[in-house]
Amino acid sequence: MDDRDLRQQLVSAGTEIVGSHGMLYQSEDTASYFEDWRRRYKGRALAVALPKSAEQVAALVKVCCGLGVSIVPQGGNTGMTGGAIPLANRPSMILNVSKLNRVREIDIQNNSVIAEAGCVLGSLREVVKKKQRQFPMLLGSVGSCQIGGLISTNAGGTGAVRYGNMRDLVFGLEVVLPDGRIWNGLKVLRKDNSGYDLKQLFIGAEGTLGIVTAAALKLFPLPTNSGTAMASFSRVSAALDLLTLLTERSGSKVEAFELMSRGQLENVLAHLNERSPLDISFPWYAIIELADSNLNWELSELLEQILGEALERNQIDDAIIASDLSKAERIWRLRHHVSEANMHKGFSVANDTSVPISKLETFIERVDARLKTEFPFANIYHCGHIGDGNIHVIIVFCNRFYDTAAKKEAAAARANFIVHETSVELGGSISAEHGIGMMHVKELEKFKPRLDIEMMASIKRSLDPRNIMNPGKILAC
Questions:
Q1: Are 230 and 320 in contact (CB under 8 A)?
Q2: Residue 421: which residues within 8 A CB-CB, separation 6 or more?
Q3: What is the Cα 221 distance to its own chain's centre?
Q4: Rounded-to-integer distance, Cα 425 and Cα 359, Å
Q5: CB atoms within 10 A of CB 374
Q6: What's the whole-model pTM score?
Q7: Rounded-to-integer distance, Cα 447 and Cα 236, Å
Q8: What pLDDT does 241 receive?
Q9: Can you list the positions of beta strands (E) in 110-224?
Q10: Which pLDDT score, from 0 to 100, does residue 258 have?
């Protein structure tokens, strides 16, 4: 059966399930779904389905099974590694969960919420805020990323230093399996030792084992008191010393601690056409936030005390504390526009490595030296979540030197290898929060122990023997 006949059968069967408005196949309707937001990956699919319920998702999966069509789960399409883009070499259907966007339940006493996979993160945060609760996941794409994608990539974000990754915020899941069955694991229990913790299989699996349709998530008291600051440093080790001091003096109130290199800050400032809150002559900068729901603490004053002590210890070179919410938002704006600024600077390769926190400075020094030797005309930036050892190494190449797809691909492959090898040598990982997608499949095979790959492949074969779910992502199969 050729693609034309296969598309006709798929669209006909899919339309019976989701209606004509929920089954897209004309090129003018589907183009935006086939390309990632950075325009690095572009695929093709027979159609795009937009179901509104888990039952519709299950019915669509059964249709695809019957026709031998692969399924690519997709949410807000804000991923960094091409995990939600279809391969061009096999018939597939994008199953976009954006219309599964209901908040089914909020339990204030249990501090939990059940939200569907298509809920936009920013919208969910606003809904629970009205109940004086917080869902603490926060990242730059807050206005477009969706819950299903955050779970499927085990996203981190700026609050991971306090709340952990997405995995740490999930009570339970509802998942459509590769054979079309619906697994209801939407428990909101804090303790459950009744066998294997099956939800963990699907968190970080990038849709290769099933389609997340809803999640039971943890909520926290809404912070009513916060303090935001920006500090500059001569060395990464000094930033780590400040983080230790903040933790010792404030307990669990450190909400975020984000590191940026001077070059990265300069690029964001140029993109936004803004002036820096601090003198731009220092090599490292950190954005710091303390937050708490206890009104007895004045966190800006606490920040002032701690930063004053750090200045006396020569741990920091300079600092500024936001005097009001608008100034705090301006500081955070610098961090949240990193990806956008780098994309406009040139062809960029962003890595997502993690190393033990105590080895961060060594990692940065080694990787900088190797990259500068290999790519003397590239800009090398750093930013990331220093509190959990997740630093993003970003190499921005001049389009004038890398003016063909082949040159860009070769440069990206070499840069990725250098960063990943350096990370693994220090006991780190090649992916901390962005996932593997299609970008790092070959790198995973190089750097992941063989037994790990074999165990992952065994799980994949057990749940998805026909390899229908997001093939070519994570594993090269």
A1: yes
A2: 447
A3: 24
A4: 11
A5: 14
A6: 0.93
A7: 26
A8: 96
A9: 112-116, 133-134, 170-176, 182-185, 211-218, 220-221
A10: 96
- Alpha helices for 44-157 (secondary structure H): 54-67, 121-129, 147-152
Q: Residue 430 region, left (φ>0) first, then alpha (ψ -120 to 50), else beta? A: alpha
Q: Within its chain, how far is the Cα of 398 from the centroid?
A: 26
SS3 string, 309-373, reads HHHHCCCCCEEEECCCHHHHHHHHHHHHCHHHHHHHHCEEEECEEECCHHHHHHHHHHHHHHHHH
Give the three-class secondary structure for 12. helix
- Percentage above 70 pLDDT, the chain: 100
Residue 100 in 3-state DSSP?
Answer: coil
Non-local (6+) Cβ contacts of 372 within 8 A are 380
The token pair at 50 is 């937009």
- What's the token pair of residue 288? 């710091």
Report the pLDDT value the prediction gives residue 321, as an integer from 0 to 100. Answer: 96
Burial label, 9 (beta-carbon count in 10 A; 0-12, 13-18, 19+): middle
Among 259, 30, 40, 302, residue whose Cα is nearest residue 158: 259
Q: How far apart are the first and last CA of the chain?
A: 23
| pLDDT tens readout for residues 200-243 | 999 999 999 999 999 999 999 999 999 999 999 999 999 999 99
| Rounded Cα gap, residues 7 and 5, in angstroms | 5
Domains of the chain in start order, with CATH, are 3-96 (3.30.43.10), 103-221 (3.30.465.10), 225-338 (3.30.70.2190), 346-434 (3.30.70.2740)
Contact 17, 63 (CB under 8 A): yes
Q: What average pLDDT does this structure show over 153-168?
A: 94
Q: Could you give the CA distance from residue 428 to residue 101 in angstroms, rounded to a whole number?
A: 36
| Pairwise CA distance, residues 336 & 357, whole Å | 22
For tokens 């006909």, what's the residue?
12
Q: What region, left, alpha or beta, does residue 248 occupy, with left being phi > 0 and alpha being psi -120 to 50 degrees? A: alpha
If you average pLDDT over residues 152-181, what whole number do you get? 96
The residue whose two tokens read 């009001």 is: 324
